[in-house]
Structure formats: structure tokens, C-alpha cells
Amino acid sequence: MGVKGLTPLLARFAPASISTISPCTLSGWTLAVDTSIFIQRFFRSPSPSPQSRHIQGIYDLATYMHSLDITPIFIFDGATRARGKERELQKRRQDRIRLQQEYERAQARQQRIRTMQEIGIAVLEDMPGEISAESWEKSRAVEWLQEGLAREIMAGHTVDARLDVLEQEAAKTMLFQMGDSAVSADDLPEHNALELLAQLSSERLDVLARRAEPLTRQHVDECRQLVRALGYAAYTVEDAESESMCAALVKGGVADAVCTEDLDVLAFGGRLVRSFYTPGQDVLVMDVQQAIAGLGLKDMHQFRDLCILCGTDFASTLERVGPVTALKLIKKFGTIEQILESGTYRQRDGFDYQLAREIFGRNVKLPFSTREEVRPRSADRAELDRLQRLFGVRLLAGQAAGLDPFAAGALF
């Protein structure tokens, strides 16, 4: 989640902390990459080669950075996560359960569509007048469609409201074609509801299938093997968050900024690069020191308390306190303790602000201490060949990258 509502808060009260620049402006920078964010993105993307889309995506990202003369440091989340993440991890588990249920509903809808298509073919193949409305097959079809309509109406719309409407329209059209007196011509849509329903349902099922597929440790390990084979610095963080390590590399002078979408980086004290590797978009650079000054806060401690009050992965919030109110309270009272002592605001369950503070302020041991240590090395061509054979594909620069910077011809 990051920090809820922080971006619009900064845009309103500390606009100087946010810069919009062209990606080429980052030439010569060293970026600590929150790699898990990108792996998730590539793994969920449509691809003609689902078994290698995460590998291809990371390769293209590295290619793109190389073309801009950016040095990446790839930071990976380990098998164990930071203490205090349990609430957010539980929420994600519940989200996965809901997603699986939605996927199963979409599969059931797809089966109903196939049945309607079969019924429609049978109706079209019948010559006018050769089949009576009382025939057993037709009566069964009418009964099935009527029951389905009743079920949809009683259940109400699902999250796919447009598909619900189309399914009802398609069923009504077919009932009319089969002579059901309960449906009149005035009830029929102007478009081909069944054809449109089949198209949109198939697209929706494809999206849900990608989202429901679990990203495993093996997928992450494969990406780690790739970036190391390409000669880039990589490190796996255990018992902590990758954003905290990325921010620490910035504070330690090893990197210039953190490349991620997660606003937690600012609470950890690092400079942030967002919207990177998004076709057709400039990148956002968010500076925490300018944010502190622009918001009128005294120091990093107050900024962290502000982030905690806005809402983070590590603690709930106070009732009736949004980002703007949180800023006013921190400027008025100075600390969360003094806000609570005022007796005006109630804590939600799980408001462990002290744990959140400890996580955001925790010192982590840097795996690299100088920029020389993270400079790209020569690629391990034998390992790259092995990865190619493993996935059965050639790792070529994708459309987003537009070139192969490692050689005049091909990398492999």
C-alpha cells in the first residue's frame, strides 16, 4: 500500500518535493531497484510466453536502464518479511482468496456463454416452422435460460456489472428467438449481446487467470539469477523490507534514488523515482527533505509520524483522521503521543505506531559500501545460455526497450 494519500498531500502542500522529468535525465544515476514490484508487474502482464514473461520483463528493464546509462542495484525480498507486516500479509491472503473466487465465477460464466452459443446455433439451424415451442430440447433450453435470468436478478450485480447486464440481454434475446411470450421485441438490446458478452468475458477471464496465478519463490530466484548473469549487483533482504534496504543505499551514498512505486521509501528516508519504465510517461522524482521543508515539519521524525497517521502497511490509523488532518495534527501537537494525550481521537485496532516507527527508523547493514562495488561487471554468457535453454526462448530486447545495448548484434 505504501503511504495512503501522501502523493496528493505533497502535491498540494509541498509541490517542490515532486519533480516531473524525462527518463533520459536520469543518465548517470545509480538506482536501487525494488525488484519485487517489477517482477509482480511483469508476471501479471499478457505475454505469448507466460512461462518466461517475468524473465523477459526483467531483461527488458535492465536493457532499458543500460540504454539510459543508469546503473541498477537489484534488491529482492527474501523468504521472511519484516515484523509488523502480518496485518498487511493477512489482507493480501484474503485478497487472493477473493480473487480465486472471482476467477471461479468467471469460469462458470464462460461455461454458461458456451451453452448459450450452442443453443443459439441449434436455433439458427432449425428451419422456421419445423420445430415446435413444445419440443423437449427447446423447452429445456427455455427453462434453463429463464432460470438463469431469475438467478441473476435475485443475486444482483457482481463486480462485473457490465457482463451481468450483457448476460441478461443475451438470454432475453435467445428466449425471444425461441418464441417465449414473456419477452417482447421492446426488451431486446440493439447490439449483439451474446457476441459482445463472449468477447468481454474471455478478456476478463484472461486477466483473472493471470492475477490468480501464484508468483513463487522460484520465479523470483530465476530473476535473481538473470540479473547476476547480466553482471548487475543484486542482494536479497531477509527479515526486513526491500524498500528499507533501497532507502539505506541512498542514505549511504551508494545510490541516487530508489526505483519503485512504493511510497514507503520516503518514510524510510530515501529519494524516490516513480512511474519508471512506463511507456509514454515521464518519471516522478520525490525528495523527502524537500517534502519535510514544504510541509512545514521540523524533522524526519515528524514526517514518519505523519506517514503513520496517513496509513501504512505496518499500523492502522486513528478514526476520522485523513492525510490533511494528520498534517494539521502533527504541526499542532508535534508527535503521535501528544495527539493521543489530547483525548480527541480514538485508535483503530492495530494502531501500533511504535512498531511502525521502529521499522521505518531501523538501521540496516549495507551489502555495498561504495559505488565501485555496484558497477556492472561482464555478463556471464554461459549462465545466460543456460537460462535460455531452461525457458526455451531467446531473451531479446522487447518493444519497451527498443534495442539491445550489450552488443552490436544480439546478446546471445
From TrEMBL:
GO MF: 5'-3' exonuclease activity; 5'-flap endonuclease activity; DNA binding; metal ion binding
Keywords linked to the UniProt accession: Coiled coil, Endonuclease, Hydrolase, Magnesium, Metal-binding, Nuclease
Q: Which domain of life is it from?
A: Eukaryota
Q: XPG-I domain: which residues?
A: 228-297
What region holds the XPG N-terminal domain?
A: 1-99
- UniProt cross-references to SUPFAM superfamilies, sorted A to Z: 5' to 3' exonuclease, C-terminal subdomain, PIN domain-like
Q: Which residues form a coiled coil?
A: 82-116
InterPro entries attached here?
Answer: 5-3_exonuclease_C_sf (IPR036279), HhH2 (IPR008918), PIN-like_dom_sf (IPR029060), XPG-I_dom (IPR006086), XPG/Rad2 (IPR006084), XPG_DNA_repair_N (IPR006085)
Reported cofactor(s): Mg(2+)
Give the GO biological process terms: DNA repair
Q: What is this protein called?
A: PIN domain-like protein
Q: Which species does this protein come from?
A: Linderina pennispora
Q: What is the lineage of its organism?
A: Eukaryota, Fungi, Fungi incertae sedis, Zoopagomycota, Kickxellomycotina
